[in-house]
Write a structure and sequence with these properties.
The protein has 7 helices and 18 strands. With about 300 residues, the protein is an alpha+beta fold. The strands form 5 sheets. The chain has a 9-stranded mixed sheet with strand order 1-8-7-6-15-10-11-12-14, covered by helices on one side. It is globular.
Length: about 300
């Protein structure tokens, strides 16, 4: 009977991904979530697994560096990156941390935070750091590709993009767009008509969400809500129980050439790491691995 009921639920209410939601911690804490584990099943690969857990594919690769993302061996135990430190900015509206490829949404008056994987601007078309607000919400948006994108599309694919792409399955903005006030409204948080790109650097500067997630956010966000875009590679926290936590992500590349990416530390980062009870060996390992998981670096906790 239980199996029959489960089958009915899966058929009638098929699984769709939605942002991971967490209780908002005390103002003196930044740690949310917990690491989940997943055993690879036959036919699965990182893109499908990332979608099921609603995490970005690059962050899934970062915490499982020795696993082939395209042909993971059946039975392999994967770590799912659903634990993190909240960014060190006010918990208001939308916060996007480019280094994480994550969007955090703090609904007003609710002790919750929703976390979405996002696609951001590729090299040469970087999503800018900014503090702005929601200018408008646009259902079934049209897309007016700039001349640079139309030229690149013609050179790369030999196809001519129309001056205006109407709503529909061929529109790369998907079904919903949230216009930001920054840059004369040229930056959007929008959906997609592609099956890939969430949690990757693929856009022309806008922020891309999965169809399910953009629909949810579109229906909950309001005009005038604050939107903060940061590039915080290192996050730290001294938790109420005394644990000192650090989370290190790979810095975003600024060129297509292979080169060592330098992590720029703030004064606050340095002060955190210079505390007498911080284990520098664990800190060094976190900087070497850059897997985006928060680790306890306390000597006595």
């Amino acid at each position: 009977m239980i199996r029959l009921l489960l089958w009915f639920i899966l058929v009638v209410f098929p699984f769709t991904s939605l942002a991971n939601v967490y209780p908002l911690p005390d103002k003196n804490s930044r740690l949310i979530g917990e690491v989940q584990q997943h055993i690879v099943q036959k036919g699965e690969y990182f893109q499908t697994i990332a979608k099921d857990y609603d995490v970005g594919i690059l962050e899934l690769m970062a915490v499982n560096p020795n696993v082939d993302p395209f042909l993971p061996k059946e039975g392999t135990l994967l770590q799912i990156p659903t634990v993190m430190l909240l960014p060190d900015v006010p918990r208001e509206g939308v916060v996007i941390n480019l280094a994480e490829l994550r969007l955090y949404y703090f609904p007003k008056g609710k002790q919750k935070v929703y976390v979405f994987p996002v696609g951001i601007g590729k090299i040469g078309s970087e999503t800018p750091v900014m503090v702005t607000e929601v200018k408008s919400r646009i259902p079934n948006p049209t897309w007016t590709p700039p001349a640079s994108i139309r030229k690149a599309h013609l050179e790369e694919r030999g196809e001519v993009l129309p001056a205006v792409v109407q709503p529909g399955p061929d529109n790369p903005l998907g079904k919903f767009a949230i216009q930001l006030a920054h840059g004369r409204g040229s930056y959007l948080i929008h959906g997609t008509n592609q099956k890939f790109g969430i949690g990757m650097r693929v856009s022309a500067g806008c922020i891309r969400l999965s169809p399910d997630n953009i629909e949810w956010l579109f229906n909950h966000i309001t005009r005038g809500e604050k939107v903060t875009v940061i590039n915080q590679t290192v996050k730290t926290s001294i938790e109420p129980d005394g644990r000192k936590m650090i989370e290190v992500h790979s810095p975003l590349s600024t060129s297509n050439h292979k080169e060592i990416q330098v992590i720029h530390l703030t004064k606050k980062d340095r002060q955190f790491m210079e505390q007498y009870d911080v284990d520098t060996h664990i800190v060094d390992r976190a900087f070497m691995e850059q897997n985006g998981l928060p680790v306890n670096v306390s000597l006595f906790q």
